[in-house]
Structure formats: C-alpha cells, structure tokens
C-alpha cells in the first residue's frame, strides 16, 4: 500500500485520534489526516508542540482539531475514561485511533538492563496503548467503520541484539494487534499494525547518531500506508502488519 492514492475527501467526516501527534511521524500523520478532511484529536506530551500542529492545520484551512496534553507514562484509567467521555460528548464517535507515540529508551545488552527504564518503555509503548484503546472502544463502536492502528518496528518482528526493551515492546505490539484483531473480526472495528521502517525523526537520530539522515525516508514518504489504513478502502483489512516503506533488496 506504499503507492496508495487517497481521494481528496477520503477522510471527510472522520474523527481520528493520533498519539504522539506533536513530533515525528505522528505530527505528519495528523497534518495529513486533516488535509484529507478528518477532524483530528492531537494527543501528546508537550503542549507547545501540539499547539504548533493545531495552528498549522487551522492555517491550512483544515477542520478544527482538538488538543489532549497527556503523558502516557503516568496516565491512569481515569484519564482514559475522561478522554472517552469527552470524545463522546463532542463528536459522538471515533473513527480512527493511531497509536503512534513511543519511546526508544536505552539501547544495550539485556544482561545490563535497568528495571525502571524497562518498565517505562513497556508502559508507554504497550500498556498505555492497550489501556487507551480499551477505554476508547465504546466510541469506536459508534463509528460505522473504525480503524485502530498500532505502530510496530522491524525489531518487533525479528529480535536484534542490544535493542532490549524497545524491541520487546514492539513484539508485544504485534502480539496485541494479532490477539485483539481476532476478537473484533467481522465487526465495525479493524485493528492493524504499521511498521514505518527507518525514518528521519529524532527517535531515529538518537538510535543512529552518526547516520546520514538525508538518506532516510521522511515521515511524508510513509503517508500512503497511513492514509490507506484510516480510509474506508481498507475496511476489509484486519490483523495485518503493513510496511510503510518498500523494502530495499
Ligand atoms: P519521535 O520521537 O520523533 O516522536 C515520538 C512522539 O511520541 C512525540 O510526539 C512524543 O511527544 C510522543 N511521546 C513520547 N513519549 C510520550 C509520552 N510518555 N506520552 C505522550 N506522548 C509521548 O518518534 P518517531 O516519530 O520516530 O516514532 C513514532 C513511532 O514510530 C514510534 O512508535 C516508534 O517506535 C515507531 N518507529 C519509528 C521508526 C523510525 O525510524 N523513526 C522506525 C520504526 C518504528 P514529545 O515530543 O512531546 O515527547
């Protein structure tokens, strides 16, 4: 689906929540979904960054977004329930949920992993996404056609030395998608993963500080797959893990 071309109004009338919408891939996904007509709910840790994305969408003439400053590391069940209630009140439904926020944490040998770093990574990359998705299920059920997307990684499909808790969290993400997608099969909700592949963001730069970033794909390059999974053209796609980039041989 790397060559998917969405029609200009592909996401009209859709309400889509993006986590980690202030920076990197999530920021570009939010701008892109708004450009194709969606009302986007921008969730992230740093309010200033969310406000900048909000301003960009409004300046481009997109539907008025909403901002949800929330640190997924400390977020509680009540935070998620409150968010679901607000979405229900304001929009009456949720059509898309892009679970994109993630942290890399520390890379290094498993033998030396630090328990608190391990727990933080699992909280942000796995537990928070499960809790958020669960809390939003009632509003997702109110959509005619809802799409939940989790964000995977190459290191979540095949183990790689020194990628530690991050890799383990991405294996868990793939497992969560596979498990949950089977439970929603033939309902109005579909659940899939995207593996972005190496992409020019600050997370990638901290994993590979010496790399020539000009050789990397940009978040914009990934958007056909991100659009596809949120558009009704993927209504029948459930339980898949898609690559956003064509693999180099
Ligand atoms: P960035 O670090 O550029 O952006 C991550 C986003 O997540 C930021 O908006 C950040 O907010 C937000 N975030 C981080 N921690 C929290 C938190 N505790 N609560 C709320 N929001 C938080 O990462 P990328 O854009 O590169 O990555 C996006 C996704 O893609 C991640 O899941 C990553 O694992 C995955 N991925 C990325 C690849 C790449 O090469 N870039 C490759 C494979 C997978 P703030 O800026 O406010 O901290």
UniProtKB/TrEMBL annotation:
Gene3D superfamilies, sorted: NAD(P)-binding Rossmann-like Domain
Entry keyword annotation includes Oxidoreductase: yes
Any GO MF annotation of the entry: oxidoreductase activity
Pfam family membership, one: adh_short
Entry keyword Oxidoreductase: yes
PROSITE patterns, alphabetized: ADH_SHORT (PS00061)
InterPro entries per record: NAD(P)-bd_dom_sf, Sc_DH/Rdtase_CS, SDR_fam
Classification via PANTHER family: ALCOHOL DEHYDROGENASE
Family: Belongs to the short-chain dehydrogenases/reductases (SDR) family.
Name this protein carries in UniProt: 3-oxoacyl-ACP reductase
Organism from which the protein derives: Pseudoalteromonas ruthenica
């Amino acid at each position: 689906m790397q060559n998917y071309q969405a029609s200009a109004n592909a996401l009209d009338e859709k309400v889509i929540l993006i986590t980690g919408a202030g920076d990197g891939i999530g920021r570009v996904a939010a701008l892109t979904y708004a450009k194709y007509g969606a009302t986007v709910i921008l969730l992230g840790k740093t309010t200033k960054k969310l406000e900048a994305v909000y301003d960009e969408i409004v300046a481009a003439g997109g539907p008025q977004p909403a901002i949800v400053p929330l640190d997924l590391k400390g977020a509680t069940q009540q935070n998620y329930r409150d968010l679901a209630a607000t979405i229900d009140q304001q929009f009456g439904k949720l059509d898309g949920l892009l679970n994109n926020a993630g942290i890399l944490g520390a890379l290094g040998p498993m033998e030396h992993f630090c328990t608190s770093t391990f727990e933080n990574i699992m909280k942000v990359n796995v537990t928070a996404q499960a809790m958020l998705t669960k809390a939003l299920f009632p509003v997702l059920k109110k959509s005619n056609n809802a799409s939940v997307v989790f964000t995977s990684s190459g290191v979540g499909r095949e183990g790689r030395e020194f990628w530690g808790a991050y890799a383990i969290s991405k294996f868990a993400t793939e497992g969560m998608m596979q498990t949950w997608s089977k439970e929603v099969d033939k309902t109005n909700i579909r659940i899939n993963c995207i593996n972005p592949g190496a992409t020019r963001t600050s997370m990638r730069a901290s994993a590979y500080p010496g790399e020539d970033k000009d050789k990397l794909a940009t978040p914009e390059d990934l958007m056909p797959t991100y659009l596809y999974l949120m558009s009704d053209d993927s209504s029948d796609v459930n339980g898949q893990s898609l690559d956003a980039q064509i693999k180099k041989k």
